[in-house]
Amino acid sequence: MTDISYREITRNGLWDNNPALVQLLGLCPLLAVTASVVNALGLGLATLAVLVGSNAVVSLIRHRVTNAVRIPAFVMIIATFTTCTELLMKAYTYELYQILGIFIPLIVTNCTILGRAEAFASKHSLAPAIADGALMGLGFAAVLLMLGAIREAVGSGTLFAHMDLIFGPAAANWKIELFAPGYSFLVFVLPPGAFLVTGLLIAGKNAIDARIKRRRDALKTRPVKGAKRVRTTGVIQ
Amino acid sequence: MPLALITSPHQHAAQTTQRVMQHLLLATVPGLVALTWHFGWGTLINVALASITALGCEAAVVVLRRRPVGFYLRDCSALVTAVLLGLALPPLAPWWIPVVGSAFAIVIAKHLYGGLGYNPFNPAMVGYVVLLISFPVEMTRWLAPASILPDGASLPDLQASLQLVFPLLGNTPIDAFTMATPLDTFKHSQGLLVEQVLAENVWFTQGTWSGAGWEWVNLGFLAGGCYLLLQRVFTWHAPVAMLAGLSLMALLNYDAGSSTSGGPLDLHLLSGATMLGAFFIVTDPVTSAVSHLGRLIYGALVGVLIYIIRIWGNYPDAVAFAVLLMNFAAPFIDYYTLPRTYGHEKRGRATKMKD
Fold first, then answer.
1. Residues of A in contact with B135 (CB under 8 A)
2. CA of B115, closest CA in chain A: separation in Å?
3. Which of B190, B199, B237, B279 has the most other CB atoms within 10 Å of its CB?
């Protein structure tokens, strides 16, 4: 299981085995905090950081932890990184931390992280484990960002509002007003909208996959149908 | 007088989807007339906008799904969804309210779940609830009926109505004739005896039973429902059970009209969307329970939920929420109310148990 190529890790993390769209893991934060781009980006980055850190440490200790206690050990490691992330967010992006609230400590319970620790990091060496953490985290964050962008655009009629919470005062005027002021379509800001948009994203991914598969099948050379003479006896000189 | 020898069964023509839907459309006419009589042109505009959008969306989705367009448009089911939604919306809502609601109902609540016959939730009610939680201001701005407007005031004529619906056409202030509905009024009269509310509020002093205008709208839908019952479009079980459930709750909680009373029976039966819900929404064959017993349970629980949400919930009316909640429960009710097949001693199980 050690000979996995980085190409495959990248494909898995971003598309084929995307934590949000294929594995459907970590749906609770995915649905709860993606009402705007800034929230989605904040949670995406926090999850990415925890995922890379925990994958790295789990990979380092993989030969020393016995099978019986591996899950508690993984959870402790993940909890440590989550706490670090939480403290960092409190120090540098306090307002965003307050908006995301309980969902930052809840990164501990995000199944994606434990899933990657168990399925990948505990079986691979350090470098692939870090790469897997980073790309799975990026795949998760990308879906969060798309959800956040769609929900913010349709629900509140803006894009990139309050980006200064992450990027500092320089980003205060990044906000784009898409519709007339006062526009709001609350369903997309509320949890039902998250379910709807996630469903549509999954449907979109499946449609793209189906189209790729159809194109690939069309390119394959078809076996020739009908009878073909095959020499079954004698030796070809 | 010749003696005609007629033996059963008497129903000759098979009911097609199209005929059922046409009966339904016809049966909405008395309610529509009452709404238009009391609240002006708004409802007609709503129904028209919702219908155009629904037919357009239906055609577009059917083309995307590579199905025959004419066949699906002719069954009138999209039109029925749109008309029911249009009847439920507040008159003179801005044009995008019926358009968004009806598009949501057809595309998401109906076709994404597989189209007519596969949708677990009533599309019209999904559209209504999406609008109600998305646009609370526009969706709670009901009009005062013509009969209780102050002297000299009148409902807007067709041109002014169109200006209100399409703000680009011109500017007409709407506040002159908006008013909380009787149910809303009652909900916000806490601390008053029922007697006082009924004696002091213009809804009830001008109305005969349960609020001027609204009672006639509900009687209109009741008449349409009776027509449908006579046409055997549906059986009596679900609507009667719903009205009985609602009545029972209203009687149990009336407590002789104290200030914490849940309100008189006639207010609950003849106000809000009660009759529209009882005869046009709860009777939806796709989203309700299937057997007679199942429909009795389904209807009764819808009635009970309507009362609970009206009195202890945040919204003044609750038909849409109650129906959607019971749509969730319909398969569950079906599981336990499978009828006995003729010739069998015991009723079967809905799903096979593993040996």
1. 185-186
2. 17
3. B279
Residues A161/A175, Cβ–Cβ less than 8 Å: yes
Neighbours of A219 (CB within 10 A): 7
Give the closest-approach CA distance of B35 to chain A in angstroms: 28
Q: Torsion over CA of A157, A159, A165 and A169, rounded to 10 degrees?
A: -110
Q: Do A196 and B108 touch (CB under 8 A)?
A: yes
The span from the CA of B71 to the CA of B80, in Å, is 16
Residue A7 exposure: Cα atoms within 13 Å on the Cβ side: 0
- Is A187–B130 a contact, with Cβ atoms under 8 angstroms apart? yes
| Secondary structure element (H or E) that encloses residue B134, with its range | helix B123-134
Tens of pLDDT along A114-141? 888 888 888 888 999 999 999 999 999 9
Query: In chain B, what are the domain boundaries?
Result: 15-177, 179-210+234-337
Does residue B323 or residue A184 have the better pLDDT?
A: B323
Rounded to a whole number, what is the distance in Å from the CA of A192 to chain B's nearest CA? 9
Rounded distance, CA B209 to CA B213, Å? Answer: 10
Is residue B108 packed enough to be buried (19+ CB in 10 Å), middle (13-18) or exposed (0-12)? buried
Does the complex come out with an ipTM higher than 0.85?
no
Per-residue pLDDT tens over the stretch A4-40: 788 888 888 888 888 888 888 888 888 888 888 888 9
Contact assignment for A196 to B135 by CB distance below 8 Å: no
CA B150 to chain centre: 30
Inspect the interface and report whether the beta carbons of B136 and A196 lie closer than 8 Å. Answer: no
Contact B133 A196 (CB under 8 A): no
Q: pLDDT tens, B246-280?
A: 999 999 988 877 877 888 888 889 888 999 999 99
Measured between alpha carbons, how far is residue A110 from residues A82, A86, A106 in Å? Answer: 11, 15, 7
| Cβ contacts of A185 on chain B, cutoff 8 Å | 100, 134-135
More confident residue, B77 or A173: B77
Q: How far is CA B175 from CA A203, B132, B164, B289, in A?
A: 44, 20, 11, 42
